[in-house]
Design a protein that fits this description.
The chain is mostly helical and about 475 residues long. The protein folds into two domains: about 5-195 and about 250-460, Growth Hormone, Chain: A, CATH 1.20.1250.20; about 195-245. The chain is built from 19 helices and no strands. The chain has helices spanning about 5-25, 30-40, 45-70, 70-90, 95-110, 115-125, 130-160, 165-180, 195-215, 225-245, 255-260, 260-290, 295-325, 330-350, 355-365, 370-380, 390-415, 420-430, 440-460. The protein is globular and about 60 Å long.
Amino acid sequence: MSGRSPFFAIFPSIALPIFIALVDQSVITTAMPFVASELGEVARITWPVTAYLVAAAVAAPIYGRLGDMYGRKRLMAVGLLISTLGSISCFMAGSMTMLTATRVLQGLGAGGLMSLSSALMGQAVGPRERGKYQAYIATVAVTANSLGPVIGGFLTEHFGWRSIFLLNPILVALALVLLMRLKLTNAPSEKKGIDLLGAVFLAIAFTSLVVAIDALRHGDSPPVGRLAVVSTILALAVAALVWWERRVPTPLLPRQVFANPSIRRSNAMALCQGALMLGLYALLPVYLRVTLGISASEIGTAMVPMVGATAIGATITGRMVSMTGWTTLFPGVGFSMLAALLLLFGLLAPDLGRTGLAIWFTCTTIWLGTVMPTVQIIVLAEGEPQDFGAITSVTQLSRSLGAATGTAIVPVIMLLTPGLGAETLQNLLDGAGGDPEVAKPAFRNAFVALALIAALGATFAARVPRRSI
């Protein structure tokens, strides 16, 4: 099925679930300094963000496979209901541990919304038209990421951070109404069965990775015993996952995803993009709070042009792909520019002020938009229609893996920097005293690390065999 009419017949129904999943992901970022201030445990400041990403990543392949088997529309409704249950639970959380656990539930609901939406879009339009339509989806996604911090900052400042979790039930109610109007259905996949054991191995591996990274936050005295145990569990879980996925008839992670070099390297690009986007969005609120001392709503407002620039980049890239048929040229250039700009900022640490910072990072984040639409276009062009749900879910898994890793590793790099400990950072976030100059080396290291990730993404883009559609 192709053409403008079929796409716009489903677009309203798939746009809102994407918006919900990504607003829930980003709305908490500007609130986290204030959540940590109330609940304590500043060393775990990114746990609620990371927990959501881990849960969403593990759930995505299951939603994808179930959607191919039993209907993507039906599975999307299930995901929406679970996400709103998680949001209500987050509202009632009384500790950082409880908030982290309830964010897991929220992430389990959101896990399939992005991949199922991409699969429905691939069902509705032809390969060459997907560029501009994927740009629309990317624009919705980035708009959600853009509005999330603004909404989070506004609600946190005026109503307290718990109020950010009351937005989800309202949006989910509307999304369910729109979903009932959706007429598009998919033919059941011939591949039956759910790889639950694979999901267990994946969850253990993913969680172990995040816990291992978190253990490094103790600076010069990391918990060596815990780190050794968690690293061993991680290695065993990865080995078990690889062994099992090669033998099970219907693997959680479709074999064609790894056998096809274009899909494999596109997913590697998605991983790098996820790490960059969420790592940068987690770092910037802390950077702005510490260096400028501004409030949550001011942080959200300052980030609007930075995050909105990514939507512009995605829109331009999608239309350029549709016009030219070129694919990997755009993320290759985008990753290279990101690497250069982040490296320059990290090394020079210019004192630009609020306006100057907004301009610099607007010019930086526009290049993030070159990746998301291109990756989805390549993956859908290489995959089989009946398996779109399973294939796109692995792309979402890759992006979530990158996002979780990027979000977790930024504070690790900062807290491992000599001179900046958790207590010092807590005081700076609280505005309770301390010299912001102490944090400059830590911020430099974090920005340089993100630049290296961008350089890795550029390398993957250069090696994707599928150069055009």
